[in-house]
Recover the amino acids of this structure.
């Protein structure tokens, strides 16, 4: 809209025409309404977001800095941190590879059953975390499909690290795929087709053309995937067996400390995960700006 | 000719269709579809009366009532306040607006167990907020509502925000020149445009709340018949080695979740159709 058209829509209040600062856009609200709405929004966010975040750090250092360091460096805490890093370290790369394959398939080819496949990929997001754990118990647990076989071969899946990894893979399954699919769909296939026509092999085309085009969205998906992988509670809780020092992840360790009334220690470990969440949000915000501009470019190209 | 090519509806010069299709389907089947089918197959081994009594015992019914009503109330709260938050973030300038905008996603990034103990501490009778309230929040059904509101908060904001950003202000200007006041314009022009996105956000928040576990169990108090949510009941049954009972309740939740997923997909298609270019 041109500036003159915008000015034409400014309606004068009782003030004369030259007192322009007392004019108001017809598509704006009076200042009182504006600040009331801002107040309502910020109060709501304070009650449900800002204060819960702040109290984590306040409670964590309540018993002093030494207690804080002790809580996050005792052997059980370190083992929980290690297991959390291990589970995320396996789950994230697995879902990264899957995300790229699924996005390549869905964005670059036209085939029957695509919409069904899209829905199925999103499925884990609508499954309760508790059920995500339960289904692996039904498959690998003692009473489950492979329970007998696993026991005969002296293999442990449930109440051991493999089930924790599997449950983590399940709950973070769609993250990378759902970030890549819309971007790659908007980018279309011309670049890759040009690379092929110019004689590039499949791998060269992917590495030199596709990957640079999707790197920010890929990173975005990985960061969200990682945050969820490290923080997952319900699914992991069902399959872990809560063996201290062995099958406890950080969120499970927090639960145990909390239930033993070691509140300061629980919040100390929780503060590490809260820090991870904050770092995730900062990175997410930074990448979002880049992805937005990239998607705009892709959108302009496809029009 | 490889069989998978029969699926292709358009020829492509790009490589990797067979590989990508094979890997995607295999991984999807191994991680998601086969384990999920275990829940339905396990349920199918139960007799109908056994299934029925497992999913309709008084304690289970009480948990449905709490889970559904608290999820519904939390989603409604989020629809109302999420709309205000989205509006304020898109339309107004105020100090720290970008910071607030980035923090809205906190419930997506903060582990649910951390959120659970933080909300419990905040709303307990000695907590920063709880001590000022005339009624108890932590360890009551109200606590469940607080936790579910927290985890559903970003959904409405993040579905409404982009639609509001794209909203053509010409329509509002036209309404104003035709004599509508600001409130009439909001009700008759803005709300109808936002409605599909608002409903989608509401449904997403509701669906997420139904299955939520981590943030709720700390603050709920978990009293049978009073403040016990359905996902917790599944875990309780599992700890009693009642696998069939746990799976039966899980099946009920899964069916509800899948119905909601289809409804949300339809809503999103409607949103896209509603505000296309």
């Amino acid at each position: 809209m041109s500036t003159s058209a915008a000015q034409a829509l400014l309606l004068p209040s009782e003030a004369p025409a030259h007192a322009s600062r007392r004019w108001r856009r017809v598509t704006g609200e009076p200042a009182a309404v504006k600040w009331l709405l801002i107040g309502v929004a910020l109060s709501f966010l304070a009650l449900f977001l800002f204060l819960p975040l702040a109290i984590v750090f306040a409670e964590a250092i309540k018993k002093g800095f030494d207690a804080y360091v002790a809580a996050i460096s005792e052997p059980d805490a370190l083992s929980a941190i290690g297991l959390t890093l291990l589970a995320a370290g396996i789950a994230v790369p697995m879902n990264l590879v899957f995300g790229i394959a699924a996005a390549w398939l869905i964005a670059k080819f036209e085939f029957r059953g695509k919409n069904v496949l899209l829905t199925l990929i999103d499925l884990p997001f609508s499954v309760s975390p508790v059920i995500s754990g339960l289904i692996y118990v039904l498959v690998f647990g003692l009473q489950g499909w492979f329970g007998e076989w696993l026991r005969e071969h002296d293999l442990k899946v449930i109440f051991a690290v493999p089930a924790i990894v599997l449950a983590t893979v399940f709950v973070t399954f769609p993250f990378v795929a759902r970030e890549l699919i819309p971007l790659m769909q908007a980018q279309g296939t011309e670049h890759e087709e040009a690379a092929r026509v110019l004689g590039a092999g499949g791998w060269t085309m992917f590495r030199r053309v596709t990957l640079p085009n999707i790197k920010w969205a890929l990173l975005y998906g990985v960061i969200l995937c990682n945050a969820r992988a490290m923080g997952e509670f319900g699914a992991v809780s069902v399959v872990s067996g809560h063996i201290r020092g062995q099958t406890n992840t950080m969120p499970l360790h927090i639960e145990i400390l909390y239930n033993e009334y070691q509140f300061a220690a629980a919040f100390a470990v929780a503060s590490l995960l809260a820090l991870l969440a904050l770092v995730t949000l900062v990175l997410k915000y930074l990448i979002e700006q880049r992805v937005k501009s990239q998607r705009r470019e892709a959108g302009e190209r496809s029009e | 000719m490889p069989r998978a090519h029969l699926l292709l509806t358009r020829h492509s010069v790009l490589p990797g269709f067979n590989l990508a299709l094979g890997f995607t389907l295999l991984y999807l089947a191994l991680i998601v579809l086969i384990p999920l089918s275990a829940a339905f197959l396990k349920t199918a081994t139960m007799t109908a009366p056994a299934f029925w009594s497992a999913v309709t015992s008084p304690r289970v019914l009480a948990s449905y009532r709490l889970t559904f009503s608290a999820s519904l109330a939390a989603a409604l709260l989020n629809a109302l306040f999420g709309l205000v938050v989205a509006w304020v973030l898109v339309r107004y300038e105020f100090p720290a607006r970008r910071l607030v905008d980035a923090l809205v996603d906190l419930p997506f990034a903060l582990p649910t167990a951390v959120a659970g103990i933080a909300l419990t501490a905040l709303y307990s009778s000695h907590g920063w907020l709880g001590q000022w309230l005339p009624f108890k929040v932590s360890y009551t059904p109200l606590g469940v509502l607080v936790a579910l509101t927290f985890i559903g908060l970003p959904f409405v904001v993040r579905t409404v925000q982009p639609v509001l950003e794209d909203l053509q202000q010409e329509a509002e200007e036209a309404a104003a020149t035709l004599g509508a006041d600001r409130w009439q314009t909001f009700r008759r022009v803005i709300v109808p445009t936002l409605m599909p996105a608002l409903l989608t956000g509401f449904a997403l928040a509701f669906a997420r709340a139904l299955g939520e576990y981590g943030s709720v169990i700390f603050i709920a108090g978990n009293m049978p018949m009073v403040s016990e949510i359905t996902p917790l009941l599944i875990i309780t049954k599992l700890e009693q080695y009642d696998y069939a009972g746990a799976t039966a309740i899980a099946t009920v939740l899964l069916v509800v979740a899948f119905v909601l997923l289809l409804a949300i997909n339809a809503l999103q298609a409607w949103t896209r159709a509603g505000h296309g270019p």
